[in-house]
Amino acid sequence: MLNLRPWRGLAITLAIVLLLNAAVLYAVLGEPAVDPGSLRMSQGPEIATLDPGRMKALADGRIASSLFEGLTVTDPATLAARPGVAQRWDVSADGLEYTFHLRPDARWSDGSAVTAEDFIYSWRRVLTARTAAPYKYMLYPIKGAEAYAKASEAGDEVLPELGMKAQGDNCLQVTLERTTPYFLSLTSFSTYLPVKREVVEKGGEAAGDEQLGWTAPDKIVSNGAYVLSEWVYSDRMVLRKNRHYWNADAIRINEVRVLPMTSDAAYVAYEKGQLDMVTDVPALAAEALARRQAAGRRPDVYLVPNFGTYYYKINCRQKPLNDVRVRRALLLAIDKRAIIEKVGRLNQREAGSFVPPGVAGYEGAEAVERNVEEARRLLSEAGYPGGKGFPRLTLLYNTHEGHRNAAELAMQSWKQELGIEVALENMEWKVFLEEVQKGGYHIARSGWYGDYIDPNSFLDLFVTDGGNNDTGWSNERYDELIRKAAETVEKAERAAMLREAEQILNDQGPIIPVYYYNSMILVRPHVKGFSPNLRNEILFGDLWIDAAGGKGKAAEQGEAAPAGGSGEAMGGGQEGRGQGGP
Amino acid sequence: MSKFLINRLLWLVPTLLAIYTISFLMVHNAPGSPFSDERAISDETRQQYERIYRLDQPLHVQYVMTLADLVTLRGMPSMKYPDKNVVSDLLAPAFPRSFALGLTALTVAALVGVAVGSYSAVRRYSALDHLFTGVTLLGVSLPSFVIGGLLLMIFGFWTQLLPAYGWGSVDKLVLPVISLAAFPAAYIARLTRNSMVDVLPMDFVRVARAKGVPGSQTIVLHALRNAFLPVLSYLGPAAASIFTGSFVIETIFNINGVGHHFVQSALNRDYPLILACVMLFSTLLVVMNLLVDLGYAALDPRIRYD
Questions:
Q1: What is the DSSP letter of A462?
Q2: Whole-model pTM?
């Protein structure tokens, strides 16, 4: 008979290891219960912050606009301002005085009333230096705001008056520094959203008086359609209907689950019917989906034009790029079509100028058409016939396959058409930013998304010494036009000035616009009320789920494109403002 | 023995301190700023960020304060995710997942690896041995994203036998565990085989046989006990790295673990999170190595720590 005694030690050891392992799994595994009527969506990686005053990215703003409600709300269908906390407003004839009448039934999620003072506190907080709000300049149209922010940064004891005044709890008077035709839209922007003073100032325990950490689910108080019920980093964010919301009866989706995922996983989950909405689709799948959508087979696929431009910027400080003719030659010779077809691949629109189309009442500058003959002529006029004697330039991009492919095509255009040698150089995102911001480049890849639907959101980039003007380009007439346009009330007149400025940008070529961004959004057919728009604004409160549509699988399946091509991080994801890849 | 233990435990402190110091200096000298973005922020705003995150303080003050925050596990706000504390909100929820996944993978790898390796050594040059040698060669050569990707294609998409991604139930664990266990299992199998081949002809094994100890008992309790030592030394560092997650596996299977933080924190220049990750890994590493040394003594009576 086999003697088992000697085996005892080993058996006990193995049993302990296995039991331990099972215990660990038991403790860690488990799935949260999901409300069957919930909207499950993924917008790519985790958002950076839920503090509206400190937000930078569109994805963050999207959550903010469902948690918090501003004086106005940007309607996703029209992108026009519709009443939010303010039920109506009056604007003075000169466009400088706004009187907002707040609805008396506006409530915070703790039941207390939302008052005019709440807005004054929130806006002042953004302008206060200690808050370090990256988008504080969005408030600068308000009278005294810029001076206030500067004084606060300088540490002044006495701070300037701000153009905002509460007339009782329900009336807020705002005076502007200068007429700002898009001011109403601004009041729905995340930087303008109200936060509750007591909650913010109590803050998180760990962070003391820095007002960090108040956005945790057990602390946050909000005034929008939803409240934050759970937030586990990179795992799930659960929004639940805010029963104190003034319009709670109109909110039809009780629970929204925002699930941070890689675009590959999100795509698979969507095709399997486990997600209802995806705003970040992997590049390879997107191309195939776009084709099927064009063939009318995927009505759940939305290819949405965005208010953003993919472009190259040129460092105008040194030879030979300080010569307009050289810059224009580069602009005229580049083959944008090829970049769109081989790299962008989402049927993007060729960018003939910097401002993307879509602004009502604004007709952009005349589109720059590719003209190789003219490019050659300009180059030889500048002293480099056929590229002879032209120094070797470097095209810098942040490490990413798409950017590299686009850069290779640009390089090819310039070599073939102009005989110019351009070397490619890639840098990791943060190093790239540092290099570009200190002007250590010749030509650099860039992208920009407008903060508000107005040409100014693009054009004020290139004013002399503008914070985001890394090109060293400066033009007096341009500066003057941008300044004057800001002071002009008459819409057509203002549009004409901005158009002239954009034309200068085209003629002077400190940038080479390549294409206007498109993005792809997948929305299952049973989700109703979705309106694609230039800014990818989605208000969860505007959506509803049509139970009759069922939660079945996507319209067409089994043909799923390979979920390859991981969405590499470019520093902040596709929708980080201005950072998107091809 | 207790003297050895106290000695080793005391050595942990300077070791970890040295790792912290080097990492701290490297992090603070890395090019690029945690606060930079495509959209430039004003110098004044950046100064405010620096104040909030203590970067305006002298380096030695930051050094001490950050160390205190880490040692007490109090943590500090992340620079990329200012709403989140790097310890309580970021690492604490993610680590149990990586740990559970890693522990399971490592258990599977050790059991399979040792069994396969021993069999190969005992039945050297048999058909199965050749097969195992080939498979383990593949296992150590194929990167995990290839294995993970293949498994995902086969079981997640084509046959749809297993869930393709996610976390929460045992079936979702199968593919990531296999992908994660593949390399260590193959490596352990090769280690065991080589080591067993050396041990099997040794005198003490022959003595055991001569005494009439049954074959299986000779192989497992006598030969393997000795041959296991190199495997044990591999398991220590392997455990530390597997418990702290794999960026690749976590990305492929959409698991929210610590592996993700190791890579993303560096790309984001999220100083507090980088340091927290490095210290988590180093602590695990030194503790695992200590456990390995203790394991040695338990397995090999010749090893004594006096």
A1: G
A2: 0.88
Closest CA to B261 of B238, B272, B277: B277
- For residue B262, count other CB atoms closer than 10 A to its CB: 21
SS3 B238: helix
Cα of A88 to nearest chain B Cα, Å: 34
- Cβ atoms within 10 A of the Cβ of A160, count? 16
Local structure of A325: helix, strand or coil: helix
Measure in Å the smallest separation between the Cα of A22 and chain B Cα atoms.
8
* Contacts with A129 from chain B: Cβ below 8 Å: 44-45, 48
Residue A199 identity: V
* pLDDT of residue B277 exceeding 50: yes
**pLDDT tens-digit profile of B150-205?**
998 899 888 888 888 888 888 999 999 999 999 999 999 999 999 999 999 999 89
- Cβ neighbours around A43 below 10 Å, total: 27
Tens of pLDDT along A382-423?
A: 999 999 999 999 999 999 999 999 999 999 999 999 999 999
A467: nearest CB among B42, B170, B260: B42
The pLDDT tens digits of the residues spanning A231-248 come to 999 889 999 999 999 999
Which ipTM did the prediction report?
A: 0.87
DSSP assignment string, B43-80: HHHHHHHHHHTTTTS-HHHHHHHHHHHHHTT---B-SS
Q: Do B168 and A31 touch (CB under 8 A)?
A: yes
Structure tokens at A103: 């609805």
A540: nearest Cα among A85, A83, A76: A76
Is A350 within 8 Å of A337 (Cβ atoms)? yes
Per DSSP, what are the bridge partners of residue A232?
Answer: A236
Kindly tell me the burial class for residue A400, based on how many C-beta atoms sit within 10 Å of its own C-beta (0-12, 13-18, 19 or more): buried
Cα–Cα–Cα angle for A560, A565, A568, nearest 5°?
135
Query: Do residues A491 and A181 lie in contact, with contact meaning Cβ atoms separated by under 8 Å?
Result: yes
Task: Give A283's pLDDT tier (boundaries 50, 70, 90).
Answer: confident
Choose among B104, B156, B220: nearest Cβ to A25: B104
Closest residue of B to A127, CA-based?
Answer: B45
> How many other β-carbons are positioned within 10 Å of the β-carbon of residue A207?
17
Q: C-alpha angle with apex A307: A304 to A310, nearest 5 degrees?
A: 100
